[in-house]
Specification:
3 domains; 5-stranded mixed β-sheet; alpha+beta; 3-stranded antiparallel β-sheet; 17 helices
């Protein structure tokens, strides 16, 4: 009886934990599906998984994975189609565990054999993906951390799978729903509050559970579980459409509204932020006794000197120092300028270095970062001059028309260009700087400007960095004194009158 209760409790907690985490993980990726698409494209590269034929479908795959993850999470919580749900959940987790293992064990200096377009075997360098993107930019996990996370999650899926195939899981009764839904919402709140700085996941999970519950109460049909699934997909799909059509609901990148581009380009030292400080304690083994000795950092030389003195007796000092070996009686003349060398030599003969222990001496500042958050932002004019510092140091407001792929914008008929031009003319009339920032060369920028009557100067920038700045292509970014104060998709470009009352 007790064993049965424990098993039931473990199953309920596992469903609660895995279900909530699946929904949150799916939401984070769905919030920035384009970012997830870029991550998939990295995996599809020849030097990675060599799945280039999937690259044109990367966005569709990204959307499918996001919604599938959310749907499985809700199915675990409501108890719908338990056997199918657990099998698909296990398959997804095994795949992602393998993927994170592959990512974690990738040798960046290694080579691999692939078949080229002509069907011939060629050797190319490994292209390692440094982060799997499991939680997007919200929680940037290393490959090893992601692998361990997936292994940990697999543990909780096992009891769910066993219970499902023993027919211990079914559509929730009201009391079961109360336990599972409350627990899942609490976990989601804590995760969102402590890890994501975002309360929307709680509302999102609530909407999904309500959609599924309403269908169950109002639909009397043998396929009600599939209809519940359709309602969940509908809600998740609407949020997905919103984030793809416009911009992510929550921006975790270093160009988010409120972030200082100037500060994010600085190193921790330049910002005045202290990193962690470490000391190194030494472990030695006495060659005669076999005794292990731990020598604390900062006390190493004192220890070496004291050991030497304990084995030698000072006799005299003229220009040199004379010692007698306490064991052999041998006299030793040590020149003053060679004292440290002789002492260290004695120590190395009597003791063998075994290990070095890294000890944290000082915690890092709360906002410590090892490298600048922005490293590749370089804006060049048509002559190749780097204007980055000049542009960012501009006092007051500066608008940026940003396109990561201006050729694609041109092929699409330059969407929103009339609104961009109107805004730029009005801004420049009021003395506000307006730039275009693209990945294209000066020639194409000039051609595009001429064909579309563009009233602002184009600068060029790295395409990858432009993808990070804003997900929309094209998009609008407004900064003031180096701080990002606004971002818009080309579909909702504001008019200049919207900025009249800005401070």
């Amino acid at each position: 009886m007790i064993t049965s209760k424990l098993s039931q409790g473990l199953t309920l907690f596992s469903r609660m934990f895995v279900g909530a985490l699946f929904v949150v993980s799916g939401l984070i990726k769905s919030n920035d599906a384009l970012g997830f698409m870029y991550k998939l494209e990295e995996y599809f590269e020849p030097g990675a998984l060599n799945l280039e034929y999937l690259t044109p479908y990367a966005l569709e795959i990204a959307i499918f994975v996001c919604i599938a993850e959310i749907l499985l999470g809700i199915a675990l919580l409501v108890g719908a189609l338990p056997k199918l749900t657990t099998v698909l959940t296990m398959v997804m987790m095994v795949f992602f565990t393998w993927l994170t293992w592959y990512t974690a064990t990738c040798d960046p200096f290694g080579m691999k054999m692939i078949t080229d377009a002509n069907g011939e075997m060629i050797e190319i360098a490994n292209q390692c993906v440094l982060e799997c993107g499991c939680f997007g930019n919200a929680i940037p996990l290393t490959a090893h951390q992601s692998f361990l996370k997936d292994l940990f999650l697999l543990i909780f899926i096992i009891p769910i799978t066993i219970a499902a195939f023993r027919n211990k899981i079914q559509l929730n009764e009201s009391h079961t729903s109360m336990i599972l839904y409350t627990g899942a919402l609490v976990l989601t709140f804590l995760f969102g509050y402590m890890m994501l700085d975002w309360n929307f996941p709680v509302l999102y999970l609530t909407l999904l559970l309500l959609a599924a519950s309403m269908v169950r109460r109002r639909v009397n049909h043998p396929k009600v579980e599939w209809i519940m699934a359709a309602s969940v997909v509908l809600v998740a799909g609407l949020v997905q459409i919103k984030t793809i059509t416009y911009l992510p609901l929550k921006d975790y990148r270093p160009y988010a509204v409120g972030e200082s581009i100037i500060q994010n380009r600085l190193s921790a030292e330049e910002v005045g932020i202290s990193g962690p400080k470490y000391a190194y304690d030494m472990i030695y083994t006495n060659n005669d006794s076999g005794e292990e000795i731990l020598v604390k950092n900062g006390n190493h030389q004192n220890f070496v000197n004291s050991l030497f003195i304990s084995n030698h007796t000072f006799i005299d000092s003229v220009n040199h120092v004379i010692y007698t070996n306490n064991n052999s009686g041998e006299k030793m003349i040590v020149r003053e300028d060679e004292y440290a060398k002789v002492v260290n030599s004695f120590f190395s003969q009597s003791h063998t270095h075994k290990d070095m222990v890294k000890v944290l001496v000082k915690e890092a500042d709360e906002n410590y970062f090892e490298q600048p958050r922005i490293m590749d932002l370089i804006m060049e004019n048509a002559e190749g001059d780097d204007l980055t510092d000049e542009v960012l140091s501009n006092k007051g407001y500066t608008f940026f028309y940003i396109s990561k792929d201006l050729e694609a914008v041109a092929e699409a008929g330059a969407p929103g260009q009339e609104e961009f031009n109107t805004l730029a003319n009005a801004a420049q009339k009021e003395g506000i700087t307006f730039y275009g920032l693209t990945n294209s060369g000066a020639d194409f920028n000039n051609t595009f400007a001429t064909e579309n009557a563009v009233p602002y100067e184009f600068l060029t920038c790295d395409q990858i960095e432009l993808k990070i700045v804003i997900r929309s292509n094209p998009g609008l970014v407004l900064i003031k004194d180096g701080f990002v104060v606004g971002k818009w998709s080309w579909r909702d470009i504001p008019t200049f009158s919207d900025f009249v009352n800005l401070p």
